[in-house]
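Internal tracking record. Fields below are filled automatically when a chain is submitted to the structure queue. Please do not edit lines marked as system-generated. If the sequence contains nonstandard residues, flag them in the REMARKS field before resubmitting.
Queue: standard
Priority: normal
Entity type: single polypeptide chain
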Amino acid sequence: MREDEGTIFIVDDDEAVRDSLGLLMRSLGYRARCYPGGEEFLEAWDPRAFGCLVLDIRMPGMDGMTLQKELEERGSELPIIFITGHGDIPMAVEAVRRGAVDFIQKPFDDQELVSRIRDSLAEAGKHRAEARERIEILECMDRLTAREREVMDQVVTGKANKVIAADLGVSQRTVEIHRARVMEKMGANSLAQLVRMVMLAEPEATEPPPPGQ
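SYSTEM-GENERATED OUTPUT FOLLOWS
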């Protein structure tokens, strides 16, 4: 099983479609979980789950768009691919505007659906990796002293050590020492790497330094 690639969640009121897609996903080595409706999916949903949701847009009870809205309100980042009938295209376009990654029309080609699922999982995997990296960076930041954090905040804006020293009212040598400790605690091998780390953890906090800094 491709456990590192997550689970394919299939929500469709048509049992034949659920069984067919579930069998297809498992034949390709994916884990698959099938549900006849939105209510059943929500009852079993784990917000920590990683994967892709293949969702029928029209179902009795909770339809696909209502489920999408409910997941959004719960903070879900699960990518959604809608399965639509011909008359559902305007709804599907609206669903994409609201955050769905894609939609595919019935009857659909299995390979086309598989391709879109793979793309969605790859993108979701990147987001998951970035989230993990961000947590690790924030943990490193927590180990900085107040003065080290002050120095880092100025370093990542591209300021020279002597400028930082003047701003903080300390010697340039003191700044150099704090800067070295920041690099060590953050696990950064270069200024560029440190800037990237801070931008990932706190994207609003800094801009890349000008060339040559």
